[in-house]
Amino acid sequence: MKTLIKARWLIAFQDGRHCVIDHGQLVYEGERIIYVGANYEGPTDRVIDAPDSVLAPGFIDTHVHSGHRALHKLLADGGRPALFGQPYMDVTIARKGTQIRGYPNYLDKEQAAQDPGITLHAAFTAAELLRNGVTTFVELGGHVLVQEALWAQCEALGIRGYLGPGYDSGRWQSDDKGQLERIAYPDKGQQLFQDALAFIHRAQAHESDLVHGILVPREIENCSLELLRQTVSAADEFQLPMATHAGYNVIEFMETVREHGMTPIELLDHVGMLRPTLNIGHANLISNHPKMNYSGGDDLGLMGRKNVSISHCPINIVRRARTLDNWKAYRKAGVNITIGSDTYPRDMFMNMRTASYHGKVMSHDLSTASAADVFEAATLAAAHSLGREDLGRLAVNARADMSLVRIGRGDVLRYGPIWDPIRSMVECGIGDDVDTVICNGRISMQDGVIPGVDLAALRRQVQEFAEDIWPSLQDWDPLKRTAQEMCPISRCTHT
């Protein structure tokens, strides 16, 4: 079936970059785009007319953690100073001898199979991403059963997932005074690695383009050199992209230097992981960052020379009182910056806007991290990190992944007059402006409705789940804090 879409503005890919076509037209047939331009004259089977919308390439969220994010909601405006603003360490490291409810990553398969939230959270994650115009996402290191649940949602809802069962050689735990220690698994993570490979092999054999595998050693400091080298060998043998968390926390940086005499980025280079299809989660606390006070290192130059990709998660880290040190310097060095949502909200418009504004401030240059730059990060650069030249763009032979964003609707004044639709989306847009999403030629959402998904019911379910989790926080929290003690309900005072 040939589908013609007529849009007020069309963001086409021409001569290696995005450009805007006023009153543009696009035709796709099956899974591929067959025409992009201003006046299609051939026959079609269906016409979608969008006179108040931008037809844009589907966003690619390169840093997703499936779940309800209820625990991260307890970290707004606070957190333990001794953890240097790292949310993962604050709410997902359990007190010794306890287990975190609603967080299956460090459970064995039998334990995780009893978690009632895995299916719910996968459904919530996939639906939220689609609702915000994301057509491809990368899951960074969730439990293999989380990936199985996401696989089912990818096929049911029509969204492309790069699914990476997480593995590591050990993990962090805490004593009842909040002091952290790293504990090694008896087999140094070999079973987790084999489980991940088995899942990825099934994904590679799968006929649909909606499900792919990615190798994800979870955190650099918790992986042995042997496990990292096995990751590189598997990536080479099976032509797989990789992702990990590195340069994400002061503790992780110092632990790696203490143990290996190298920075996390230097360690990745040492084992051969640095390459364009390595997605480093965050990579903002590197040797070049002035807060690290690390003399003689050049992690930025090292990443740039290898054209490494990073998943910059602007909203998540700015809540922790930090940001990417210098967007301009990263790009000048040759680092491929992509954008991820990480925790919440999974709204690429808000994340692009945050990346743009903080990129300007930190670079001390108002022309840096422009709307075009961050839009490219959420599309073309993200596709590059996955080794895909058929995603993140509206061009002939590219995958039919796109969204219609209603920026000219009559009931919204937020946009005002529109001169440049890309700038308007970055500066004024929100995910709720997305009207229609098409992924791999399938209409996955139309008029804000995802077939078979009751968004209101989903929201009620995750609210109920969170309200069941929060009262038991003290059962595993290292300091035995209640939810109210960790995150007091806001009180506004005037003095």
TrEMBL record:
Location of the Amidohydrolase-related domain: 55-443
Keywords assigned: Hydrolase
Cited InterPro entries: Amidohydro-rel, Metal-dep_hydrolase_composite, Metal_Hydrolase, MTA/SAH_deaminase
Transmembrane parts of this sequence: none
Coiled coil, from the record: none
Protein origin, superkingdom: Bacteria
Record-linked NCBIfam families: PRK06151.1
Protein name: Ethylammeline chlorohydrolase
Organism whose genome encodes this protein: Alcaligenes pakistanensis
